[in-house]
Amino acid sequence: MKETDAAFQDEKDVIIRKLWVMNESIMSTVTELDLDTLLGKVAFSASNLIKSEMGFVFLKKTGEYPQQTVFFPDTDIKIVQSEAWSEYIYRVIEDAAVIKEGPGLDKDLYVELPDGQRKKVDSILASPFIAGEQTLGGLFIVNKPGGISFSNGEEDLCLTFCMHIGLAIDNVVTHSKNYQRTVTDPLTGLYNRKYFKEFLENEILRSKRYKHRVALLLINIDNFNTINETYGRLSGDTMLRGIARLFSKSIRETDVLCRYGGDEFAIVLVEDKEGVSGTPVPARILDNISRHEFATGESQEPIRVTVSIGAASFPEDGQTAAELCKSAVKALQKAKDDKKSE
Predict the structure, then answer these.
(1) Which residues in 305-329 are b (16+ Cβ under 10 Å) and which e?
(2) Which CATH class is domain 2-178?
(3) What's this model's pTM, rounded to 2 decimal places?
(4) Does domain 193-340 have CATH number 3.30.70.270?
């Protein structure tokens, strides 16, 4: 009788510890707003919550986020692609199924370890991440130590954990969509001034730390008010969208293009090695603009426009975002004054 009571107490202690771990894990994820950090926390928590040889967190493409897979305990583990794996992932992601199978699982399910060796999946426990009516991904826990099956209690624990994680992931995605709306210019689809200020400040801090250079270009469409008055605001809006596309084609993927306001644009050249005097971007912009004709309406002839560019570079022209912007504004005004005196 005493042995039975002791065994019962041990099992009770294990359950209490697991519930405590799960509670701590959930509390660490519910307020997280960075998806990569969240998925890392989920993988770490899962490895502590249910004993297993390995596992992975799978997130399907959601909104702006690509499909992602995070393995544990080693992120260098990989799935050996097979129809069996596709079937299991489909069941969890598309059918929202909870799976508990094995040991002795006779399926073509293997993972590749960091040393290149293949490991057969003998048992598996998997549960979906659900938010509302949407399945966002799933948790896959592989191979119970000792060649035994995952328990019903572990299945319940996994399901409960995944329910909370689904809500946490949905919170990140929703927050990202809301934030994206606040930093996007509705006319051009570019980042707006709010995002520009945040990004430039962060980029200068990063550049100070890693000894990088940053170049800032402020660009103004010459005589845009006259164009608006002559051809109408709709034509002006069409021109702004077209110019935004031309600017996008003139920069690298790592650079950031923003609508600074009205007819002004800002470009942050990240990790600029040449400085403003050596970068080819201003010349490329001027060339692309000079060769393009902009439509002004069905009954109007297309027109060409010109732009003025002011450039400044960190650290030469400013040590802060405000100083760099001030230098770029001065350079832009000089460029406009030079055109007037020609």
Answers:
(1) bebbbbbbbbeebbeebeebbebbe
(2) alpha beta
(3) 0.60
(4) yes
